[in-house]
Amino acid sequence: MSTAPILEARRLVIRRGDRVTLDGLDLAVPAGCVYALLGGNGAGKTTTLNALLGFVAAASGQALVDGVDASRQPMEARRRLAYLPENVALYPYLSGVENLQYFCALSEVRLDAERARGLLTAAGLAVEAQGRRVAGYSKGMRQKVGLAIAQARQARAMLLDEPTSGLDPAAANEFAQSVLAARAAGMAILMATHDLFNALQVADRIGILREGRLVAELPARDVAHDELERIYLRHARDVAPSRVHAGTETEIAPTPTSAAATATATATATATATAAEAEAKATERTSP
Length: 288
Ligand SMILES: Nc1ncnc2c1ncn2[C@@H]1O[C@H](COP(=O)(O)OP(=O)(O)OP(=O)(O)O)[C@@H](O)[C@H]1O
Description:
Layout: E1 5-16, E2 19-30, E3 33-39, H1 45-52, E4 60-65, E5 68-69, H2 74-79, E6 81-84, H3 96-106, H4 113-122, H5 127-130, H6 139-152, E7 157-161, H7 169-184, E8 188-192, H8 196-202, E9 205-210, E10 213-219, H9 225-237, E11 242-245, E12 248-251, H10 261-267, H11 269-284
Parallel strand pairs: 3-8, 3-9, 6-7, 7-8
Antiparallel strand pairs: 1-2, 1-4, 4-5, 9-10, 11-12
Bound molecules: adenosine-5'-triphosphate.
C-alpha cells in the first residue's frame, strides 16, 4: 500500500481576523492510516478539518486532499472526502435508506434500495431501523448512515470531528470497529477528538495540537492510556514542542508564525469568499 499522504497539511497557516488559529501546521495521513488529533478547547482541531474541507482558506501553506489544494479547489477536495461532523445531519423525515440514496445522488452515485440496505447493514445499522425516519435515530445510528455514505461514495479519506462524544461505551466501541474497517479498506482517516481511549483504540498516529501548533506526535501502538494522558497533559501546558518516536521524544522544530500571512490573505480573498459560501451552506445542512 502506498505511503504517499492522502491528507496533508504543509506549513499551514489559518487566520481568523487578526488571530492565527493554525500556525504552520505540518501533518500527513497516508492511505490505511488513522491519525487522531488531540488538543484542548480552541487548539485548532476543527479548524484543521475545515481547512482540508476548503471551508477556511489558508493564509499561507497548503491543506491537501489527495494532492488537491483545498483552498484553491474546495469542491475537488470535498469530492475526495467523507466528513462526519460531531452530529451527522440528515433529513429527519427521510428514512436511513432514503437519506443514503439522497446524499449519494448529490455525489452522482446512484444506489438502488437493495444496495443501500446492504451498505447500511455493513455499517452496522439494524435492518429494522433502515426504513424508519431518521428523526428517531440516536447519534450512533446517524453516524452509521454517515459511514455508509462514505463507503458508497468510495471516498479516499474521511474526516471525523468528535465522533465518540455522547456515545455510550458500547456505541463508541461499535464506532471504533467501523473506523478500523474503513482503515482496512485503505481510507486515510483524520479524527479530531478529546477521547484518549478511542484514539488509542483506533489510531496509528496521535498528534497533540496546542495554540494551532503540533506540539507532539507519537505512534499510538504500545502507548498505554495513562502514558498518553501524561504526555497529553504535559503538552497541554508545555511550551517546548516535541515528537515521540517509538517511545523516544525528539524535538519538533518550532514553525515560525507567518509574518506575511496578512499580505497573502488578500491574495486568497477569492478562495475565502468561496469557502465562506460553502461554510454557510454547510451550517445550513452538513452532508457527510
Ligand atoms: N468561525 C470562527 N471565527 C473566528 N474564530 C474562530 C472560528 N472558529 C474557530 N475560531 C477560533 O479558532 C481557534 C481554534 O478553534 P477550533 O474550533 O479549531 O478548536 P478545537 O481544537 O476544535 O476546539 P474544541 O475542542 O473546543 O472543539 C479558537 O481560538 C477559536 O476561537
